[in-house]
Amino acid sequence: MRLRKKHFAIPEMTENPYVFFNGQENKGKWKEVFGNDNPIYLEIGAGKGTFTIESAKRNKNINYIMVDIETNALIYATRKIIDEELTNVRAMPINAENILDYFDKDELDRIYINFCNPWPKLRHKKRRLTYPRFLEKYKVILKPKSQIYFKTDDLELFEESLDYFKDEGFSTLIEDFDMKLEDYPQNIVTEYESKFRGLGEKIKFGVFEHYVN
């Protein structure tokens, strides 16, 4: 569902020191931006930021970057960075298509993709964030032996994504078609996950390792 246009979003985020509209300038320099050598985790399609914000609160020794093309949602995520005084979070309103413009080779330690658009129509599947053309880009910016964490409610997307990851040379570490909360006590339930669980949908969860010969 598309959010109503928030005319204040971009002006407000422009004043936020933790938001980068010209993030290309930081390519290869993100450790300098954070001012430490801690691991860098990226969430693609962060929405209102529930996952990244809670993750950053729990793990102060990890740096987080959240990106989303939808500024109407990201404005709420970026407010939380300030409200929670989280110095280990940065944000960029960008299109994942251009991810290679923002991160250098082997710069990231992990990528999260939570409840992305399933794009079920055949002609649209290439837009999926797990589609091979995206995975090729992720392999560039991820360090060897790093992982992609993927959650979705959509069965077709999950099943086809398993093939995408396999075809692109990723090793499957976790493949769970019915993610029980009791089995993952560290799981952070996002707004979408709560909604889908409330509807009785099974949550699919996978962890895939970037394997390099």
TrEMBL record:
Xref: CDD domains: AdoMet_MTases (cd02440)
Top enzyme category: transferase
Keyword Ribosomal protein: no
EC number(s) stated in the UniProt entry for this protein: 2.1.1.33
SUPFAM superfamilies: S-adenosyl-L-methionine-dependent methyltransferases
Residues bound to substrate: 121, 153, 190-193
Keywords of the record: Methyltransferase, S-adenosyl-L-methionine, Transferase, tRNA processing
GO molecular function terms attached to this record: tRNA (guanine(46)-N7)-methyltransferase activity
HAMAP family assigned: tRNA_methyltr_TrmB
Family: Belongs to the class I-like SAM-binding methyltransferase superfamily. TrmB family.
Name by which UniProt lists this protein: tRNA (guanine-N(7)-)-methyltransferase
Record organism: Peptoniphilus harei ACS-146-V-Sch2b
Organismal lineage: Bacteria, Bacillati, Bacillota, Tissierellia, Tissierellales
Gene: trmB
